[in-house]
Every structure is written in C-alpha cells, then in structure tokens.
Amino acid sequence: MAASEHSHRDGPDLCACHPEAGDGAAPAASPSPSPGLSRRGFLRSGVAGTAAGGLAVGLAAGLGSGLAAPSPALAQTTLTADQALKELMAGNQRYLDGKMTSFDHDLKMLHDHTAEKQEPFAAVLSCADSRVPVELVFDQTIGHLFVCRVAGNIATPEIIASLEYGAAVLGVRVVMVLAHGRCGAVEAALYRKAVPGQISALYAPIMPAVFQEGTGIDKTAGVNARNQAKLIAESSPVIADLLKEKDRLKVVAAFYDVANGKVTLLE
C-alpha cells in the first residue's frame, strides 16, 4: 500500500533534501466484534467509499457499532495500544543503536508465515519520501506494520479508509502519523511554489499547518502531522469508536529526523 515517488527533472522535488531551507527537527466503545468478519466482507460493507470529514459514513453505516475489533484470527491481540507504541519506539532505538533484529529472521519462514495472513500491530502514515524507510526505521519484519504513504503524510479519504481497515479488520493497536525533516511537500505548500500537473493538490491539506506555524519547514511539518492525526481520530466513526475502548487503539503524531534517524513523539 505504498505510493511511489519519482522526481521530475523540470519540477520541484517534493521530498528532496534542502539543508538551507530546513529549520531542524520539531520536538518531538463498541460491542464485541462479529467473529465471521472477513476482509472481503469488510470491503463490501462500504469501506472503499469512506472519506474524511463525514465521508466515513458509509463504513459507519455498514459496520458502525457492530464492529469494535477484528476477528481474533486476524488481530494481533497480544499487545495493548501502549505496548504497541512502546514497541515502535524501541524498534527505532535499535535502529539508532545499530542493533537491529529484523534481519535476523529467516526470510523463507517469514514468507511462509505471512503468505496467507498479516498480523500488523501498528499502522504508520508516512510521507512518500525515499529517505523514510518505515520498516527499517522501526526495525520491523514483514507483516508487522501496515504502512500508508503519500507525499506530505496527509489524511486523504483513501488513506483514512485504509487506516480504518488496518484498525478495524487487521487489529492494529496504534496509528502513527510520521512527519519528517526537510519535507519537500511541506516546503512547496509553505512557499506556495508554482508546480506542474496535479502536485498542488497536496497543498490544501497542509495549509492549515502553514497558517498555524508558517515559520519553517520542520516546525510546519510537525504541526501538519498533529493536524492529520487529529483528523484521523475525529473524522472516522470507526476509529473514534475504537479509541473509546480501553487499551484498544492510540492515534499519535511523530517526527523523523532524516539527519540522524531519530523518531520523536509529538504532543
């Protein structure tokens, strides 16, 4: 579910490193589930038409209070929301320390284990920037992270629908919106750059952060991550319901420093 990003020779690089422009990293319930829920059933219930700011009504009507959590066969139920977040941050610390464990696993066994199912404990909405390799940053193997990527890490209707699927069907315990330093999408919105094609479609979701902060790329990126996390938590009835359940789900914002690899949680 990752979106690829390719630079354009004649246009701006939306996620290119611009040291002169950066300003440093920002500081960091529903009833019981239906046991027979399947991925196909979930999609048929209207999730594909889900969207932000009230557009998630299709999913709410199809599942709503009837779905609080996924089938036990699909969920990674051994972690609480706090434990899932702690594991993400511990993985980033291993990455920083050069003590990664994800490469110690047997690749064939991983493929065999995940061929028929996935058991992610966390979902991450990150920018499409090639310098933000999410699984590496958090030292996680195949099947552990449900990753959505789009330039500017913005919560579009399709992204929210995907995160609803991750939370409601796959049973992720934490949703993290991950901003990063020297983000080209944020820079372009901040300085209202003239851009070719449909690139400017990224501006509108980022502009609230520009108006709130507007003093530098990294600080604006951090504000944008908080805004997108708030949008996800408040615009989706599915996620809002799961957030009401004790230890079931957390939605957080974080910032990735491309210069040193450190992830910092944002308040």
TrEMBL record:
Report which superkingdom the organism of origin falls in: Bacteria
Enzyme Commission code(s) on record:
4.2.1.1
For this protein, the record's InterPro entries field holds: Carbonic_anhydrase (IPR001765), Carbonic_anhydrase_sf (IPR036874), TAT_signal (IPR006311)
Cofactor(s) annotated in UniProt:
Zn(2+)
Q: Does the keyword Zinc apply?
A: yes
The residues listed in the UniProt record as binding Zn(2+), with positions renumbered to this chain, are C127, D129, H180, C183
Renumbered to this chain, region (Disordered) spans 1-41
What does the note under cofactor report? Binds 1 zinc ion per subunit.
Q: Which reaction does it catalyse?
A: hydrogencarbonate + H(+) = CO2 + H2O
Q: Where is the composition biased (Low complexity)?
A: 22-31
GO molecular function terms attached to this record: carbonate dehydratase activity; zinc ion binding
Q: Where is the composition biased (Basic and acidic residues)?
A: 1-12
Alphabetical keyword list = Lyase, Metal-binding, Zinc
Q: State the similarity comment.
A: Belongs to the beta-class carbonic anhydrase family.
Full protein name: carbonic anhydrase
**Biological source species:** Tistlia consotensis USBA 355
